[in-house]
Amino acid sequence: MDLLGFSRSLPTGEARRGFFLLMIMSAAFGMALSVQDNVVSNYFGDVLGLEGPQFGYITAIREVPGFLLIFLTALFYKMSIPRLTAMMLILLAAGMMLFTFSSSFWTVAPWVVITSMGYHTVLQTQYALGLSVTTENRAGAVLGRLTAVNNAGALVAMGTVFVIFWVAPDAFRPTFVLAGLMALVAAAAVYGLPNLHDGVKQEVVPERPKMVVRRPYRYYYYLHLLDGARMQIFFSFGLYVLVVIYGMEVWEVSLVLVATKLVAMLTGPWIGNMIDEHGEKPLLGALNIIYIFALAGYALIDNVYVASGIFLVYSVIFPLSGVGSATYLRKVAVRDEIAPTLAMGVTLSHAAAIIVPVATGFILNYVGYQVPFLIACVFATFTIFVTRKLDPRTQRSPARIAEDERIHGRLVTSEPAIEPADG
Fold this sequence. Notes:
Elements: H1 3-7, H2 13-47, H3 52-67, H4 69-75, H5 81-98, H6 105-132, H7 139-167, H8 172-191, E1 196-197, E2 200-201, H9 218-245, H10 250-278, H11 280-300, H12 304-332, H13 338-363, H14 370-387, H15 398-413
Antiparallel strand pairs: 1-2
Helix pairs in contact: 2-6, 2-7, 2-8, 3-6, 3-9, 3-13, 4-13, 5-6, 5-8, 6-13, 7-10, 7-12, 9-12, 9-13, 9-14, 10-11, 10-12, 11-12, 11-14
């Protein structure tokens, strides 16, 4: 990954500074999430004594803030995106540290909500921040590299957790404190991020619309609704199957997740470049075909090594769906509507994410764990049909067309709005 060389191709010095700060934030954010995700399923099962259906219920509780994200974003619409992100990372840190005080399903639920509120806000603002440091034709490359850095941070975290639990198998609570500290590092990095658009610093922070629902963005909404349903089935019960059905220990789960992050770190920039080069339509279509095979294999092949491999493949590629949908939105949406529309996408994905884990958790009371994964295959199949409709060249909103015409006129008649690349 030529991250340093890539940063020199960004349009301005402020853009390069913003990119480096985002790399720090992405690495620390990845470390925080991975530390927690690596141990939380075992913590729920081994320490709190949660059972299969409760895994689905706790997932539904966790997704409520994601569903309400559009309203949270509207509440803080006057706050700049870097400051909003920093505030939510601090909230995430607090929630992670408060996990240490839980002893049952009901005592952990409030901290799940708090961490979720921070996580889901940053989940959408990180794409808006990444898109702000570069121009449209490099958006996939930037997001792909930030995804790689996130996975690199996660990889370091996984190795750390592996060592901790190899030495002290019950070190759950200190590990949650470590996760919170990493989230605070991410908050400190993003707090100093300049306000950028197309890599150029904006002296006046534009006021974002409180809430955005536009018909021209409908395919973006469809993608998130279907992705939310599919994704939450897998991540509600994927680790549950490895831990409960196959009896994997924390250190064994750590090995799987380390391999996952290593592969994702190496492939993220390449796939980001492929999105820029070939467009979202073929890449998103291919990803969902892989999802179908992975989900069906997880359900139908009864082998711990195969399940671990499938978990690896799925975990590597699932963030790239978000990258593809974000770059598609960048091409069709007007500038000031990108951040609130990203929030609306997360809200829609979590509307499904609240209902689906509860429904599938209920199903687990009566059928085998395989059925939810087969249901997820159906959602991936529908997503393929949506991706076939994508054509950003003809699907720009009327406001975006007017904005492009206005900017094009300015570029022709005045000084360039973007400085040329150095070197």
